[in-house]
TrEMBL record:
Domain ABC transmembrane type-1: from-to ranges: 106-321
Main location: membrane
Similarity comment: family membership: Belongs to the binding-protein-dependent transport system permease family.
Cellular component, GO, one term: plasma membrane
Leader peptide range in chain numbering: none
Protein name: Sugar ABC transporter permease
PANTHER family, per the entry: ABC TRANSPORTER PERMEASE PROTEIN (PTHR30193)
Keywords carried by this UniProt record: Cell membrane, Membrane, Transmembrane, Transmembrane helix, Transport
Pfam families: BPD_transp_1
GO terms of biological process kind: transmembrane transport
TM region(s), chain numbering: 50-72, 110-131, 143-163, 191-216, 237-262, 298-322
Membrane topology: Multi-pass membrane protein
Amino acid sequence: MDNLFDKLRRLRADEGDEPPVRTDGGTATDSSRSGFREFLGSDFVQSMPFWLPPFLLAGFFVYGAIGWNLLISLTDSSGFGPVDYSSLDFEMYARAFNDPAFIEATRNTLVLLIGFIGICLVFGLLLAILIDRHIRFENTFRTIYLLPMSLSFVVTAQFWLWMYNVNNGMVNAFLGLFGLGPFNFIGNPELVLPAVIFALIWQFSGYAMVVFLASLRAIPQEHYEAARVDGASTVKMYWRVIIPQLTNAVISALVVLMVFGLKAFDFLYALVGGFQPPNGADILPTLMVRVAFQKNQWAYGSAIAILLFLLALGVIAPYLYYEYKQGTI
């Protein structure tokens, strides 16, 4: 016991010691402990209870699921049962590139994305320029153009199913005034994809209009006045002065519209009430779901999902790089 009390007294004496004095008269400090205390007191550590749980959850359920999907795509798994990870290869990717159904779905996906995004951007820009001219009933027009975006894909699909009806649809009735039709827009493989693209443009061009209108309103009036003083016509003023300043709006709208375009699976599913879209409108998301959940070919479906993910990443990556160069992320 005496030895124990002696050790406790020495320990308390050590804790009460004054910091060692340096030869120049200052007080020596332990730099490693000071740096660690500063790290614990930093905003990064103090804010950790708020951002770390959602970060871990998103990392596990989103990026972890993508990684697991990639691993399954390297197997030969099909049907229900345990997945055999002992033999990994790229057989499913080779199968995809030699599958006519995958090639057709890829072509339809690219046509849908390019047609939908390109026309949506142009139409939205024209609407924004028109409304930015301070026309009468500006707020009413803006609400009318934006209203279809508030509808779900199920409602939109049923609405356009009636509009495209061969016998009594409004579209065929309108074309009939000019001696055209009637056309079977949903049943004709050559018309169904343009019909789907037109329906998506109707729903989401209002979003592009709002994005462009906000950017147009942010441009100083001095730029318009300087262009007019230089003698530029209205077309040249917008083409050479105003539109080049809408780069950020174009990129932002492009990324969001691409996400909407890839969600056309919901529209096609609601249009026909199943995984098999009309002939000529099969896209990668519908093919992926059909292969995975109807045919139970999990590995092949996972390979299609990874290729679709790479396609989306190829569009979003330039946007992320641009934002990184701008210092916004």
